[in-house]
């Protein structure tokens, strides 16, 4: 079906459930929409990313959003001016708005340059899509990433993330002889408390963005044949501030483990780092930030606010690797991300299309 309305397009995107690793159906929908809107060079790469272009030549600007969501279905429905659905905020509305903004510039863009719109996979999991995009080495002068900053705000900084898996092992024994054996679950939880307490030393008086913050994401064990648990798994999400790189945080984790094992000689701990995203702070004095700020003021009548966020995004990965101006912007209240009542306000979504349009035009006209 050919879609010719930005709200209908977003609704159709929301109706396609696309948790990380299952983006192909929504990718096909986006490809069809891009082709119907007159994009050129529309394609899907081996990772599952979708690309489409408006205009040609140089300079070029990248508009990048992600097609995946966290797990958990939400019935898609329109209540007043609120459109509910998984991904309504995080972040199908941003990608849909970018797509329509680029398409609406087609009559004017030929003499200005090229817009590349990218829908990438697995942002919510391991950033596989943006890592693949980097390997393709797009020649762009700047990039905007679609995430819910809110209509009047620009996200310029994100914390980093280290996802760690620890396995605590002890000797098993009969439950009736519990006084003679160490319980792996109890030892693992003691280790978690050591990690949490160690991170308290890295708290900043300037707030959580500047602090090292751990979260216990998963704890699991098994009942051994003898009764006393001899193995327990911990998965920890460690959020790192700009001044703490991942190598330093991993050294801290290893030192905590070594100290714990030294005090508990019948306990062994293994550490595996499953994913690393470095913290990133974008420059605020670039032509991109100027164009985005001006466009927000023109559309909303208010000055743009610059946000630091305690999460991570594809801008972390891209900005760390490519030394060009970047920013993150998109409609929606980020406090609704990953919740069971995720919705986007239609007027905000439509106004964000205008912000993207004006920003792209200003950027390409200035280069």
Task: Please give a structural write-up.
There is one protein chain. The chain contains ten helices and 16 strands. The radius of gyration is 23 Å and the shape is elongated. Helix 3 packs across helix 10 and helix 8 crosses helix 10. 35% of the residues lie in helices and 25% in strands. It folds into two domains: 241 residues, Aminopeptidase, CATH 3.40.630; 118 residues, Alpha-Beta Plaits (2-Layer Sandwich), CATH 3.30.70.360.
Main attributes?
367 residues, alpha/beta, Aminopeptidase, Alpha-Beta Plaits, 2 domains, 10 helices, 16 strands, 35% helix, elongated
State the strand order across the main sheet: 1-2-6-3-7-15
Number of helices: 10
Question: For the report, how would you describe the main beta sheet?
Answer: 6 strands, mixed
Share in helix: 25-40%
- SSE-based structural type: alpha/beta
CATH class of the largest domain reads Alpha Beta
Oligomeric nature of the chains: single chain
- Please give the CATH architecture of the largest domain: 3-Layer(aba) Sandwich
User: What is the number of beta strands?
Assistant: 16
Regions with little confidence, pLDDT below 50 for 5+ residues: none
How far apart are the termini? Answer: 38 Å
Rounded radius of gyration (Å): 23 Å
Q: How much of the polypeptide forms β-strand, as a percent range?
A: 25-35%
């Amino acid at each position: 079906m050919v879609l010719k309305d930005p709200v209908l397009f977003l609704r159709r995107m929301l109706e396609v459930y696309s948790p990380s690793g299952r983006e192909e159906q929504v990718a096909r929908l986006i490809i069809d929409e891009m082709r119907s809107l007159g994009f050129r060079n529309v394609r899907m790469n081996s990772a599952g990313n979708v690309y489409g272009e408006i205009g040609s030549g140089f300079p070029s600007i990248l508009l990048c959003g992600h097609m995946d969501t966290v797990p958990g279905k939400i019935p898609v429905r329109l209540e007043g001016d609120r459109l509910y659905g998984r991904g309504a905020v995080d972040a199908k509305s941003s990608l849909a708005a970018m797509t329509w903004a680029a398409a609406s510039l087609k009559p004017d863009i030929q003499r200005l340059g090229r817009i590349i719109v990218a829908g990438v996979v697995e942002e919510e999991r391991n950033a596989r899509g943006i890592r693949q995009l980097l390997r393709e080495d797009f020649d762009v002068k700047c990039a905007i990433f679609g995430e819910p900053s809110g209509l009047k705000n620009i996200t310029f900084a994100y914390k980093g993330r280290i996802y760690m898996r620890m396995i605590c092992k002890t000797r098993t024994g009969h439950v009736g002889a519990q006084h003679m054996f160490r319980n792996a679950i109890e030892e693992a939880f003691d280790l978690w408390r050591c990690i949490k307490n160690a991170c308290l030393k890295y708290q900043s008086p300037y707030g959580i963005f500047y602090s090292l913050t751990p979260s216990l994401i998963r704890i699991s064990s098994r009942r051994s044949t003898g009764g006393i648990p001899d193995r327990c798994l911990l998965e920890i999400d460690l959020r790192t501030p700009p001044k703490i790189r991942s190598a330093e945080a991993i050294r801290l984790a290893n030192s905590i483990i070594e100290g714990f094992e030294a005090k508990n000689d019948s306990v062994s701990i293994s550490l595996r780092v499953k994913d690393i995203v470095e913290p990133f702070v974008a420059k605020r004095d670039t032509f991109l930030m100027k164009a985005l700020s001006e466009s927000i003021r023109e559309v909303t009548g208010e000055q743009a606010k610059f946000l630091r966020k305690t999460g991570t995004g594809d801008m972390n990965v891209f900005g760390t690797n490519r030394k060009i101006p970047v920013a993150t912007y998109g409609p929606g209240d980020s406090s609704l991300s990953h919740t069971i009542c995720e919705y986007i306000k239609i007027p905000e979504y439509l106004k964000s299309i205008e912000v993207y349009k004006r920003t792209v035009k200003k950027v390409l006209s200035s280069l």
